[in-house]
Amino acid sequence: MQSSLEVIIIGGGPAGLSAALILGRCLRHVAIIDAGHPRNAASLALHGFLTRDGIEPAELLKIGREQLRRYETIELIQGEVTEANRVDGGFEIKVDNGKKLFSRKLLLTTGVVDHLPDIEGLLPLYGKSVFHCPYCDGWEHRDQPIAIYGRKEHGSGLAQTLTGWSRDIVLCTDGPGDLTEEDRAQLAALNIPVREERISHLEGSDGRLERIVLANGEALARRAMFFNTGQDQHCDLAERLGCEFTERGAVRTGNFEKTNISGLYVAGDASRAVQLAIVAAAEGAEAAFAINTALIQETLEERG
C-alpha cells in the first residue's frame, strides 16, 4: 500500500464499504478507516436491504469487509480519526493509532448518533422493542399497540406515520407536548390519544416492552415504542473541514455527494433525510463514481 493514497474513506458502514468496493474495482488506492461504533449496534436485525433483509447488522459489515479483501489496493484500518485537514493537493488524516495518511480525495461516511430518551428501563429494550425508524422496524410490530415518544411536530409527525403499521397508537410526550391546534386536530382525526403525563419508567422482559408506567402510577400496555428526539453528527470532522449544513443539521451535499469543499464528499446518514442502510450503500457507490471520474479528469489535465 502506497503512503500517498488516492482516496481515504472515514467510516466503515454500508456507505463506506460500498464506496470502497467500487473504488477498489477501479484500481484506486484506498484506505477505509473505521472506529467500530455503528449507529445500529443495538439492533437485532437490519431490514429493507435487498437480499439481506433481516441480517444481523454486524454480519452485513463482516461480509462487506471480507469481500473487500480480494482488492489489493484497499487497506482496512481499525481506528478513530483524530484530525483531518485540507492541505495542498488533498487531505491529511491523523489516526489515534499514530498513523498519518495523505489522500487526494476524502469521503466521510461517519453517520449520525440518535438522542435516546432519558427514561429508566429504556436501554435494555433499545433495538429490540424501542426504535427510532418505523421503516426499519415497523413491520415486525404491525397491528400491535405502539407508543410514540416525542414532542411538537416531531412526535405528532411520527405518530401519524406509524398509522401505516398500526391503528392502536398513543403519543406520549413525557410532559407538555407543545402541540399546535392543527397537530391535535390531526391526531384526533386519526384516533391517536395524547398522554402528556411524565413517564416514570418502562417495563419489559427479554427485550420486549410490556408497559409504559406514568408518574401518576398508571400503566399503558404497549408492545413497542418509536421515538423522535433528534440526532447529531457522529463526529465533527465535516464541520472542522468547513462543510455547509442544512437547517436540520445534515451536511449539505450536491450532485454525487459533493460538498462545498473541493475534493470532499459525504455519503450516508450524515447528509440525508432518508436514513436507510440500502440508501447509504447506494450513496457510497454514487460518491465513488464521482470520485473516480474526478481523478480521471485530473490525470488527463496533468498529462495535457
CATH class of the largest domain: Alpha Beta
Along the chain, the helix and strand elements come as EHEHEEEEEEHEHEHEEEEEEHEH
Number of helical regions: 7
Largest sheet: 7 strands, mixed
Q: What are the low-pLDDT stretches, counting only 5+ consecutive residues below 50?
A: none
Regarding quaternary structure, what we see is single chain
What's the overall average pLDDT, rounded?
95
Overall tally of domains: 2
If you had to describe this structure to a student in words, what would you say it looks like?
The protein folds into two domains: 4-113 and 231-303, FAD/NAD(P)-binding domain; 116-227, FAD/NAD(P)-binding domain. Helix 4 packs parallel to helix 5. Strands 1, 2, 3, 4, 5, 6 and 17 form a seven-stranded mixed sheet that branches. It has seven helices and 17 strands. The protein is α/β, with parallel strands linked by helices. The longest helix has 27 residues, at 277-303. 26% of the residues lie in helices and 27% in strands. It has helices at 14-25, 57-68, 134-137, 152-161, 181-189, 237-240, 277-303, and strands at 4-10, 30-34, 74-78, 81-87, 90-95, 100-108, 112-114, 130-131, 146-149, 169-172, 194-195, 199-205, 208-214, 219-221, 224-227, 231-233, 264-266.
